[in-house]
Amino acid sequence: MKIKEKSNCLYDLLALGEVMLRMDPGEGRIRTARSFKVWEGGGEYNVARAFKRCFNKRSAIVSAFVRNEVGKLVEDLILQGGVDTRFIKWEDFDGLGRSSRNGMYFLEKGFGVRGALGCSDRGHTAVSQLKPGDIDWEHIFGDLGVRWFHTGGIYAGLSESAPMVILEAMESAKSHGTIISYDLNYRASLWESFGGYKAAQKINKKIAGYVDVMIGNEEDFSSCLGFKVKGVDENLQSLPTDGFRSMVNDVSNEYQNLKIIGTTLRSVKNAGVNDWGAIGWSKDEGFAESNSMPDLDIYDRVGGGDGFASGLIYGIMENVGLETAVNYGTAHGALTMTTPGDTSMVSVDEVIKLAENPNARVVR
């Protein structure tokens, strides 16, 4: 897989997706909260932010906001993360939000037997209304230059036009030699009004034909592409490695364009304790499995998969070999889940250290 030279591109990574305002009740519950902390977050954006803040790479986001105080707040949060905002499309505010609005979601992290709970408020958002032709992809990929383009199934499920925007972007990226990654990221709530997993599969199977690096977990590959992992129980207490390897083989045989596949392995013990790991596959190196992290203590699980994706992509871009790249992804995902909010708050040195020696000894 040939990645474009850094000197020929303005950006190492460009992401396409929605960035929402996250309302966090802290240790309490959404239904009884009297105050919230605010964060920015979004599956695709989280990767771009980690690329800048953790991995010291040049990144940008393609998204859209309504020009009001909430939109400006989210923009400010993005700027604090160092991600270039020049490709954000701004819509005028109609005073009510009837025609277009900014997305928000509320999330409580859960505790013990009470799992994390999210409540989205993202209907009719500005980014869901993007249409083909709204973004000058030829200028971005052709004139400015991008080494890696990342998007995912969360954005694909926002509206009927979103998959068309993705395909338009991928066609342009492909024509200019930009590597394309896609995180399947299935969310049942997003696809419910469009026809559920059958609609998701119809769209994602078309998108998969353009992808170089495919990322997801067992539910993602099943719901988005129709591939089953044998031996996985409904409570995710059993994640057989052989079943994942068999599934990845089936995916790679079906989509010959795929160069690399990465899948996370998560067994849920309770809201604060998960077994955590990952498997990667590439055409050149075959299979590689990460260091296992059993009984991983979790502070805030949202963003762990995006942390894996960004760490994996970073390792691939740095040409460290598949096994090391998978371990970077696993380590970064684990560390991302030790802090509040969707986004990474760690350094690349911490990621590399944990990938090489998984322990939590005090640093003095």
Quick rundown:
By secondary structure, the protein is of the alpha/beta class. The chain has one domain (6-356): UDP-N-acetylmuramoyl-L-alanine:D-glutamate ligase, CATH 3.40.1190. Helices cover 35% and strands 23% of the residues.
Structure explained in plain terms:
The strands form two sheets. Strands 1, 4, 5, 8, 9, 10, 11, 12, 13 and 14 form a ten-stranded mixed sheet that branches. Strands 3-2-6-7 form a four-stranded mixed sheet. Helix 11 packs across helix 12 (348-356). It has a single domain, classed as Ribokinase (UDP-N-acetylmuramoyl-L-alanine:D-glutamate ligase, 3-Layer(aba) Sandwich). The longest helix has 15 residues, at 322-336. The protein has twelve helices and 14 strands. The chain has helices at residues 43-53, 69-80, 137-144, 153-156, 162-175, 188-191, 196-208, 218-225, 241-254, 304-317, 322-336, 348-356; strands spanning 11-16, 20-24, 37-41, 59-66, 88-91, 104-108, 117-121, 146-152, 179-183, 213-216, 260-270, 273-282, 286-289, 293-297. The protein starts with 10 loop residues before the first strand and ends in an 8-residue tail after the last helix. The chain is α/β, with parallel strands linked by helices and 364 residues long.
